[in-house]
Amino acid sequence: MSKRTLLRLGLFQLAAGGLSVLFLGVLNRVMRVELGLDLFTVSLLIGGGHYLGALVAIPFGFFSDTHPIAGYRRTIYILLGAMITAGVLIASPWVGLWLSGSPTTSTLLISFLFFLIEGISTYIAGTAYLALITDRTTEEDRGQATGLVWTMLFIGIIATGISTSFVLDEYSFNGLVVLFSGGGIFAVTLGLIALFRQENRQAVQAFQRSESFKRALRIVISSKNARWFAIFLFLSMFSLFMQDVILEPFGGEVLGLSLGETTRFNVYMGAGLIASMLFGGMFLITRMGKRWVTELGCWIMVGAFAGLAFSSLLTMRSGLPFIITLLGLGSGFFTVGGVALMMDMTSHKHTGLFVGAWTLVQALAKGPASLVSGGLFSVFLSLGATAGQGYGSIFILEVIGIVLSIVFLRQVAIKDFRREVVSLGMFASEAMD
To answer: Using an 8 Å Cβ cutoff, are 238 and 369 in contact?
Structure first.
C-alpha cells in the first residue's frame, strides 16, 4: 500500500479522533461541570455505554471474516457504523440537556441505551477498520502504517481541540449544537473519502463459512501467548484510561481552568502523540522493535502520571502543559507499538476474529476504567479527601497499573503465538473430523 493511499485511509481515523474529543472530552465536561450531573453518572452513561458496545467486537469480527456484503468484508460495515455514530453525536446535546432537567431512573436508562448505540456502532466500524488495515499490510509495513494512520487520529484530536476552544470557549447550548452537528457531518464525509476503492471487491472471499464461531474462539482462548497479551492490554489500557473522564474535570475543579483551557489539554496531548507516533512508527520500530517501543511508551506514561499526581496534590498549574505533552509522548509510543503488535497477533484466516478479541479486551479495560475512576473519586470525597487529593490518588493508581503491565508484556513471544495458532487450528480440524 502506498503512503498516499494509506494517508487517505487515515482520514477515517482523523474523523474518529474528532468524535472522541466531542464525546469523551467536551460532552463529558459539559454534563459534569455546566449541567451539574454527578461524575459517576456521567462516567456510567458516556464511558459505560460507549465501552459496553465493544461486546460485539469478537462475534462481529468473526462475522465480517465470513459474511461479506456486496463482496466487501470491511467497507460497508465501517460506513454503517460511522453513520450511526455521527447521528448519535448530533442528537447528544439534547439528550444531555433533557437528562439534566429530569435525572430520574427512566431518563437515566434511556440515556444509557442511547450512548450504548453509539458504543456498538463505534466498535463495529473500528473493528472492521483495523481488520482492513491488517488485511492490506505486511508485518514489515505495519510499524509505518500504524504510525501514519494513528497520527491522523491525533491530528483529528488536535484539530477538534483547537476548533472547540474557538467555537465553545464559553459554554452555550446553541454553540454545542452547532459544534456537534458540524462534527458529525464532517466525520461521515471524511469516512466516505477515506474508504473509496480501498477494498478490492473482486478479491474478497468469505473464509470457512462452515466453521463455527465457537471453534474459532477456542483457538484464541487456548493460546498461552494470547492470554499474556490480553492481560498486558487490559492492565495497560485500564491504567491509561482511568484519566479519560477525569482529566478535564480535574483541570476545572482543582486548578480552576475554563472550558477552553481544559479542552486544550487535547492539543498538548495530541502534539506529544503525533511526535512519538511518527518517530516511533517511521524510525524506532524498524530499529528497536515493536515491543521495545511499546515498553518505552509505558515508562514515559509512568513519569507523566506521577507528575499529574504531584500537580493535583499540591494544586500547581505550573508545568501542566509539559506534563500532559509528556503523557501524549508516552501514549504515542505505547499506541504505535501496541497496535502494531495487535496486528501481528492475528492469523490470516481469522483477522477479524483476533482484531475483535483485542478490541474487546481494550474496551473491557477502558469502560471499567472510566467507571472506577469516577466511582473512586466519589468514594475519596465521601471519606473526607479534597478534590485534589481524590484526583491525585487516582493518578498514583495509574502509575502502579502501568508498571505491572510491563511485566506481562515481557512474557509475549510473537513466533510462539503463531506456532500455537497453527497447532491449535490443526488440532481443532482433527477434532471436527
So the answer is: yes
**CA separation for the pair 322, 324 (Å, rounded):** 6
Give the bridge partners for 69, in sequence order.
72
Q: What is the dihedral of CA 75, 81, 84, 86, to 10 degrees?
A: -80
| Torsion, CA 406, CA 407, CA 413, CA 418, rounded to 10 | -80
Residue 397: closest CA among 368, 376, 427:
376
Q: What is the pLDDT of residue 425?
A: 58
Residue 72's DSSP bridge partners are 69
- Cα distance between residue 351 and residue 419, in whole Å: 16
| Beta carbons of 31 and 96 less than 8 angstroms apart | yes
Sign, CA torsion 23/24/29/35: positive
188 exposed, middle or buried (CB, 10 Å; 0-12, 13-18, 19+)? Answer: middle
| Residue labelled with grid coordinates 508498571 | 403
Mean pLDDT of each 10-residue bin along the chain, 433 residues long: 82 91 83 80 79 80 78 87 93 89 87 91 89 81 81 82 78 87 92 88 51 64 83 92 84 80 80 86 84 94 93 85 93 90 77 80 79 85 87 92 94 81 54 41
pLDDT for position 427: 43
The amino acid that residue 110 corresponds to is: I
Closest CA relative to residue 294, chosen from 347, 232, 244: 232
Q: Residue 90: its pLDDT value, please?
A: 93
Euclidean distance between CA atoms 260 and 164, whole angstroms: 7
Distance from C-alpha of 314 to C-alpha of 328, rounded to nearest angstrom:
22
In whole angstroms, what is the distance from residue 326 CA to residue 426 CA?
A: 46
What secondary structure letter does DSSP report for 280? Answer: I
DSSP H or E segment with residue 215: helix 213-222
Distance CA 211, CA 206 (A): 11
In sequence order, what DSSP letters do the residues of 41-62 get, joined into one string?
Answer: HHIIIIIIHHHHGGGGHHHHHH
Query: What local confidence, expressed as pLDDT, does residue 202 receive?
Result: 57
Q: Which domains does the chain have, with CATH numbers?
A: 3-432 (1.20.1250.20)
CA–CA dist 51, 123 (Å, integer): 8
- Taking a C-beta distance cutoff of 8 angstroms, is the pair 395, 308 a contact? yes
The count of other CB atoms within 10 Å of the CB of residue 206 is 12
Read off the DSSP letter of residue 207: -
CA distances from 286 to 168, 213, 231, 400, 412 (A): 42, 35, 25, 29, 19
Cα 406 to Cα 391: distance, rounded to the nearest angstrom: 24
